[in-house]
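User: Can you predict the 3D structure for this chain?
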Amino acid sequence: MNQFNASAWALEHKSFVGFLMVLLAVAGLLSFDHLGRDEDPPFTIKVMVVRAVWPGATAEDTAREVTDRLEKALQSLQWIDYISSYTKPRRKPR
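Assistant: Here is the predicted structure, written as structure tokens:
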């Protein structure tokens, strides 16, 4: 029985096997370059943090002039479900 021996054939045709390996590597690189870019599903940012610093102003001034105005502007947005805000005085550096 004379069976086909792939290893012996590859050793006898080294240049052809090398050509096939280079051809497959180039085909793989081209295929990789054409892969889709949107494999990950889109996601929604569920939290937004806004920080405003107003040196020299009191917490009440900052709440009235900054926080309240930001809240009113954000409430006009369509996709906002919940808004929570607070204003606190800044700690003095040691």
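The mean pLDDT is 85. The two ends are 92 Å apart (CA to CA).
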